[in-house]
Amino acid sequence: MSSAKPPHPPRSLADQLRSWPDERVARLLAERPDLAAPVPRDSGQLASRAGARASVARALDQLNVLELTVLDAVQGSSGSAAARHACLDEIRSVVNADPQRVEQAVARLRELALVWGEDAPDTPLRTVGVLGDLVGTSWCGLGRSARTLLAGYGPTRVTALAEDLGLRPTGDRAADIAAVAECLSRRETVSGLLDELDPRARAILDHLDAEGRPGSVESTDRTARRGDRTAGPVDQLLARGLVLAADSRQVEVPREVGIGLREGHTTLEPADDVPPLATSSRDAQLVDQAAAGAAFDLVRRVELLLDHWGTSPPSALRGGGLGVRELRAAARLLHLEEPAAALHVEVAHAAGLLALGDADDRNAWLPTDAFDLWQAGSVADRWTTLALAWLGTPRMIGLVGTREPASGAEQRGKPVNALSPDLVHGWLPETRVRALRELHALPRDQVLATGTGPASLVTRLDWLRPRSPALRQQAVTWLLEEGAALGVLALGGLASHGRALLEAEDPRRAIPAILDPLLPEPVDHVLLQADLTAIAPGPLTRELAHDLALLADVESRGGATVYRFTEHSVRRAFDHGWSAAEVHAFVADSSRTPVPQPLSYLIDDVSRTFGTVRVGAAESFVRSDDETALATLLHDPGSLSLRLRRIAPTVLVSDVPVDVLLPRLRELGIAPVVEAPDGTVRLTARQALRSRGRRPQEIRRPAPSAAQLTSTVAAIRAGDRAAQNRPEQGIGGRISPAEVLSALREAADAAQSVWIGYVDNHGTVTERVVDPVHVHAGELSAYDQRSQQVRLFAVHRITGVRALT
């Protein structure tokens, strides 16, 4: 059901929202989802939330340069029911941009409920009151409006200024302020006042306008008048209203005067010039193939890393991050630089494949149960999981390896660790998606130009989201590098499967159909060489890659991965329970070339020595049926630190623990196995561990669905009907703080005087008539008509509010 349009113009934002159709309210809640949680009681509460500081700040972060410039123009002209310059026609003339684009920007601001009022081009526009505190009218470098600055002037001073400007004061302070502001808004008036200034006064005025901030003086309480020829430079400016007193020691150029100095516009440069992207031509198929290769490497390396960490998990730092030494070891394992290794670690964590867990009574980083399920999928499915995790993670991965700012006596800050909880930046996912959408908008055969392309993308994003943090410029550079390493981008362009991340309704179904044909077919064989190496002529099948990684060490990666067989690597297979016959069978079955004789000899040599020596605990003991081998070990100079002694022809004992003795014996060239208490052989292969930790929580709140929006709008409409039938509150009775805030904000938006009941410091309820300026942080800033000055009133002390007609 849509709400009917009221017969009179809206007096407040709440009235405006009540008049909107349900579809438009739903669009507002979709654009600003924070307004819908929890569900507002009625349109009044929805308007109150839409004017709250935090919510408005989030909405402002969605605006581009043109929209902020238009908002600045509306904000500088609105704030009073008598204001005539806040209409669409006036905004079109004052903003230095194409009029049609200005209209589109105004429509966007209306949709976000930052600007409200009738849709007619000649009716005033209003802005939510908190904008004055958040951005004021400083976006274009202009000061506050004359109406705002004159709010601090008393009646006598307003009358004197009106007379100096050639106006006839009426004695009504509000009417005289409006007349002075109207006079200063005329360009011909400002031009005539400028001609009367001496060079010193004109230089001060130009300097204040260029700086865009108030200037300090000894005192703003001046008595000089416009006709005084002996007046100093500041007195000349104050007497003509070219600068107005911001307080007792600061002066400010009114916004109307600043516009006159800028030839009738709020900015000298056009506000609708969108910076272009620097592009070059590139074959789209080449981009897809290069990105697919990077995607395959990503999946392979993440699987290798987590498979290794399942048996040898790295310890977690006390603060929850990954140590520098552990990251360096991961980089060596993956044959990558440390920043690239950090990217793999962070993406695995964001995808829920890696989490904190317990290993050997210590806190360590372990694969999760989701890793086992992830391994069972195809390469395209696994890549999609990783890419979606990267796209939505709020973690600034590029900061890993840099140093925090130095504090105190420290000359250098601490290094930033991978998986550190301090890397979260909530604005990063939106920036990442927006950057990719800019690349998505390019033709398929156009990519970012080498060298200048990334810089042009940064400039474009600065125009689209100028309120983003300063770190965003570096973040864009990092995300381009990360996107290339992950296979989302390649050669400066967005791959086809990268486009599907943004445009597909269900990327998990759409991407495999695009990516699978681009991936290389896995091979089920290797080529054995006489130098104890094996060459994989392509990506290996998962089973073959796993078994070969157990039996050999990766020597180099590239188009063809090279594996090297060593005594240590072959012994590793025996430690995992392989027999010599199984090792021989594996290398013979997996190779397209004959098994070289040196490899067969290596396997037999390791098998011959493997298990000939058994280690137990006496604290520990060494036993072997080969007495000569024990004698040789006992007299070896390298075994002196083991403190071995013979207790039988076939048994040596030591006071060194088994977990120390075992690796020391291997360093001496012996391949012992551990003997269990029952005399059987206990293999030393470690069991793969898994973390039972929770998946990382999403920082971003998911966008409400269409059904949720419809339900929320229906609840708001029901609340409006209930409010219409609510009994009217008595003048002296108590009302809730929420109702006080709503009434005060409506009065501030409409620039309407109100009566309030107020409890003073002595507990006495007093009655006051005030002109609300704005409401913020539980306080009302308003012009008190009794004391004739702007005062602050605590909202919780206000007992009643009534608008004066």
Write the layout of secondary structure elements.
Blueprint lengths: L12 H7 L2 H10 L11 H8 L2 H8 L4 H13 L10 H7 L4 H13 L3 E2 L9 E2 L3 H4 L11 H4 L5 H10 L8 H12 L2 H9 L3 H13 L3 E2 L16 H7 L4 E2 L4 E3 L2 H7 L17 E3 L2 H28 L12 H11 L3 H13 L3 E6 L2 E6 L1 H7 L3 H14 L35 H13 L5 E3 L4 H12 L7 H15 L2 E2 L2 E2 L1 H8 L3 H9 L11 E2 L4 E4 L5 H10 L1 E4 L4 E4 L2 H9 L4 H11 L6 H13 L4 E3 L3 E4 L3 H9 L9 E4 L2 E4 L3 H10 L5 E3 L5 E2 L23 H19 L12 H14 L3 E6 L5 E12 L2 E6 L4 E6 L3 E6 L2
Parallel strand pairs: 16-20
Antiparallel strand pairs: 1-2, 3-5, 4-5, 6-9, 7-8, 10-11, 12-13, 13-15, 14-15, 16-17, 17-19, 18-19, 20-21, 22-23, 22-26, 23-24, 24-25
Helix pairs in contact: 1-3, 2-32, 3-33, 5-7, 6-7, 10-11, 13-14, 16-20, 17-18, 18-20, 20-25, 21-23, 22-23, 24-25, 27-29
User: In angstroms, what is the radius of gyration?
Assistant: 37 Å
Terminal residue distance: 33 Å
Strand order of the largest sheet: 18-19-17-16-20-21
Largest sheet, if any?
6 strands, mixed
As residue ranges, the low-confidence spans are 1-6, 79-85, 729-733
Beta-strand content: 5-15%
Tell me the overall shape.
elongated
Helicity, as a percent range? 40-55%
Mean pLDDT: 82
Structural class: alpha+beta
Number of H/I helices: 33
Q: What oligomeric state do these chains adopt? A: single chain
Number of extended strands: 26
